[in-house]
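sanity check this chain:
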Amino acid sequence: MSNEPYLSVVVPVYGSGEALPELRERLDRTLRERNLSYELILVDDRCPGNAWQIIQALASSYSEVIGARLARNFGQHAATIGGIALARGEWIVTMDDDLEHIPEAIPALLEAADTNHSLVYGTFNQRTHSSFRNYTSEIMRRLLKWAFPELNQEYTSFRLMQRSLAKQLETFNLHHPYIDGFLSWMTASVRTVEVKHDLRKHGRSGYTLLRLIGHAVNIFVTFSHLPLRIATYGGTLLAAGSFLFLMYTVYERLIGNIGSPGYASLMSAVLFTCGIQLLMLGLIGEYIGRLMGATYRRPVYVVETVTTRKR
């Protein structure tokens, strides 16, 4: 008989180390009640505080727990892929470390999965985030639906994946990975299950406003050509508008309505045009930077330490 577990639960850890003992206890109780063998893989994304010490203590006390520490902070998606690389289960769950994703909902994800649906998302009717966070997230989803139509629209970081699908995530060598974008490229066999979104009990979210903006830019630049198309169409419209204004100015000059062009209007037009050009150059630079990163083959993540698996 194989010693491999039926289920691997991968948890990237950043900012909620105090929640890990409760998460392990609730996960163990939920899965043992259903006689499901499992492993819990906790990936320390170099978060502040004593999270790694907590992970080491759990790994030394419970044979199901495996801890991994990254060499530096690589981000949630990179840390998740690093945990998936260590996973041995037939099915792999990814979830957050703050207990907003409740372990008791995992059996519902397993019930929805089958050979024809290798990816199941746990979705939330009502999120416990702040109103501002919920509002901006909804705007982001609508923009992504427009820019990236093939994206699984009901995506969350609470996912269940078949092992063969999850392991393919390791083949994407992008320095700024986005798991749900990769999954949308690989499969359309998706189901969703509505689950409860619980309150955060420990720590604070690592996603500040600037990080959320950076994450949004990464998604748009990596998975959509829409920014380049906007730059192209915007430049075309600006050029056409400038030409029409030039013709209008020449006409007004010829009929004597313009005596001497004003300095303020001239500078306004020049500055506006320069601003649009710099914006376009910035967008092009983002794409070139991603291409350079892929060329350099920078690692998605680097694992510094892995705890010894107990038997």
